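Appendix C reproduces, verbatim, an entry submitted by the partner laboratory led by Prof. M.T., so that reviewers can inspect both the input and the predicted structure.
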Amino acid sequence: MKVSELIKDLDYTLLQGSLDTEVVEIENDSRKVAEGYLFFCIAGSVRDGHEFAKEVVEKGASVLVVEKPVEVPEGVAVLQVPNSRYAMGMISSVFYGEPSKQLTVIGITGTKGKTTTTYMIQSMLEQTGHHTGLVGTIEIIDGKERIPAANTTPESLKLQRILRDMVANGLDSVVMEVSSQGLMLDRVAGVDFDYGIFTNLSEDHIGPNEHASFEEYCMWKSKLFQLCKVGIFNRDDPNFEEILKNHTCKVITYGMHEGADYQASDWKLHNEDGHLGIEYHLSGKAEGQMLVNIPGKFSIYNSLAAIAVANEMNVDIQVIQQVLTTVKVRGRVELIPISDAFTILIDYAHNAVSLESILETLREYNPGRLVSVFGCGGNRSKTRRYEMGEVSGRLADFTIITSDNPRFEEPQAIIDDIITGISKTDGNYIEIIDRKEAFRYAIMHAQTGDVIVLAGKGHEDYQEIKGVKYHMDERELIREVLEEEDVSKICGYNNRYFA
């Protein structure tokens, strides 16, 4: 493809070379450049891609996209653009055949709820005949394989390749998490969004390496609604009006207050045979009684967002209801149904705010005991350990302190820090360094009505020790405990998960 075809929608200055230069592939990683490549010089937080201009030309790069002049041989085409990241997204889209225009693209942004909502939507669309891909925090589903995710929203070049593969694999739609970083760094430049969803906004991702202020964080989140055709908004969120500013899309709302297009009312907690969930009545643009298989009031909002998209895409209400009663998201309040007498859940809560949120949510179900099993990562802030210990001591009836990813620290030193925090409360606890043994203790000492949350690892399937990531899947640890123990001694044992 010629350079002139790739830059059709860009502002640029041709510093040298010809727009008739042929491009065989595009790349932003200097190590992967070969003959006939176009290379994007990106000024990153660690290295400036302009420093590699001569190196990639020696490897055969015939075109460079830059933000500032570079010294390379005259035969190399050099295009100067205002923003190399934005140009990378736009050029990548054209080079890979504008794949997003061949898909129904659903983007979800917000502080919480993105991951769960993506899986709800994907399941609803799949059940009604849509072949649907997914791009998110946990994984990428491209129609052929499931690939562990490195970033919530991949770099634009990688994202456009993923979308191209989805089209090639016969998919007709994709639902993706869109982070504020992804919007700020133009990772979604060149993506043609059909739907955008706003879940909620709270103080998060504010700091020197992310956003300078909450106002800036909010501003970047709102950018999605200048890119999509239809925006679906949580009307109940305090930042709704701010997110709505400068939107260019059609507006659809959901929430629990009067006036929402998709409204939930008469909600109540659902607790039956160890299963925790939430029920509510749906009215507005769709009607019906909803039962969501994930506990917590936030599940109402996540499901409303999914319902809105699905209904707009003509998914039958019976399909929506069926999906919500069975939906499960790996590591996000994930039920492991091994007993009718008590509940055991896996959740990604790995800081004080998220641990407090999940424990307060589960406390609403009036458990016989609320048991918290968690550890903290090594080579990270000690403050997090003190705070998580204090939160668990205050909100849980019993805490089992164990190991998470110790990295280069000694697990016992990390546990001692957690104990410092929990000692500020009257909370009861035990320390068991080995994570599997901690799970064994929780299961074998479970009582009727207990709700046990295994917090911190969530979807992760490894434990990092001394620089090495060892395979460790919490579901497998639970299975091993069940295989090694006399299950008749487990309270209310009725294993539906590993059967």
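The chain has a mean pLDDT of 95. Additional entries are available on request from the coordinating office.
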